[in-house]
Write a structure and sequence with these properties.
The protein has about 325 residues and is mainly α. The protein has 15 helices and no strands. It has two domains: about 70 residues, no CATH class; about 220 residues, MetI-like fold, CATH 1.10.3720.
Length: about 325
């Protein structure tokens, strides 16, 4: 197992280098005049350095005064030391801006992910075990409705009902008007209250596909020969379903859930924008629109690392959930 993990990590590092190089190449393909525009806009800020000083600093910091290959290795060297430079869009260090916004999205995504598993997987199993029943039809309709709901429509509907009509929540933002006057516990619950509707939106929009996916895979396993054999041996239905059938259903689910790791840090652009949540989804989108090369480079490489890590975790969990799968 450890040899396999070490081998996969080494392969992932090689893939990461090539992915980072492609990202760097795309960023360097942007018009060079944009760098001059950024330097000029920064030089016009009160108390800022001159245009020539900004051009010299930005070009030297991000290797823009070098060729693509030397510039890439220069960026890698700085990245290995944890130096990703300053964000052009937010005028703060890239790592600081990322840390300020990513944990908001992570908390939202993690809570929504937990509720998605708790709700969608049991409902998918119930629908599969009661195929063509009223329960199955009801769960299928709910899944299709959730899957088909546009995020902006559902979020706007929640805001209309719970913010405008009932007045239970604020229309947007992460904190309330009296946030500074609250105690530490009060500030915590104030932020938690502002995250309720965004999390509900994420959960409802995402559970439909997982319910359908669980139901489909569970039906395929329930029709297998070994399930009929287990029932013929007199095993209880619960043991057949939750011990034999569900464990084999976990194989495709592990693949799907393992690939969800990057989504926990990627943020939810539409949801964060509609609720005015300053998460990483909204921040990264604004950075890319503004051509913020340092922040975009860091964010895209970070997502590539999470994608490779999610695939590695999925491969390792295969052997955990299914004894027939062996790393060797």
């Amino acid at each position: 197992m450890w040899k396999y993990i070490l081998k996969r990590v080494l392969i992932s590092l090689v893939i990461l280098v090539f992915v980072a190089f492609i990202i760097y190449l795309l960023m360097r393909s942007l018009p060079t005049s944009y760098l001059e525009q950024v330097a000029r806009s920064k030089s016009m800020q009160p108390g800022s350095k001159s245009f020539e000083e900004w051009m010299q600093q930005l070009s030297a910091t991000y290797g823009m005064d070098k060729g693509i290959i030397p510039g890439f290795f220069s960026w890698c060297g700085r990245a290995l030391r944890g130096d990703f430079g300053d964000s052009w869009r937010w005028t703060v260090p890239v790592v600081d801006k990322f840390a300020d916004s990513v944990w908001i999205s992570f908390v939202m995504g993690a809570i929504a992910f937990i509720f998605e598993i708790i709700i969608a997987i049991p409902l998918g199993i119930i629908a599969a075990t009661r195929q063509y029943s009223k329960t199955d039809y009801a769960i299928t309709i709910i899944a299709l409705a959730c899957f088909s709901l546009p995020t902006f429509f559902f979020a706007s509907l929640l805001k209309l009902v719970f913010c405008v009509n009932l007045g239970w929540f604020d229309l947007g933002g992460l904190i309330g008007r009296n946030f500074e006057q609250l105690s530490a516990a009060g500030q915590f619950f104030d932020k938690a209250q502002h995250l309720v509707l965004p999390i509900v939106t994420l959960v409802v929009i995402s559970i439909g596909s997982l319910m359908r996916y669980t139901r489909t895979n569970m039906l395929e396993v329930l029709n297998a020969d070994y399930i009929r054999t287990a029932r013929a041996k007199g095993l209880s239905e619960n043991k057949v379903i939750y011990h034999h059938a569900f464990r084999n259903t976990l194989i495709p689910l592990v693949t799907m859930l393992g690939g969800s790791l990057p989504g926990l840090f990627a943020g939810a652009l539409i949801t964060e924008t509609l609720y005015s949540i300053p998460g990483i989804g909204y921040t990264s989108f604004q950075s890319m629109v503004a051509g913020d090369i340092p922040f975009s480079m860091f964010y895209l490489v970070f997502m590539a690392i999470l994608t490779l890590l999610g695939n590695l975790i999925s491969d390792i969990l295969y052997a955990v959930v299914d004894p027939r799968v062996r790393i060797a």
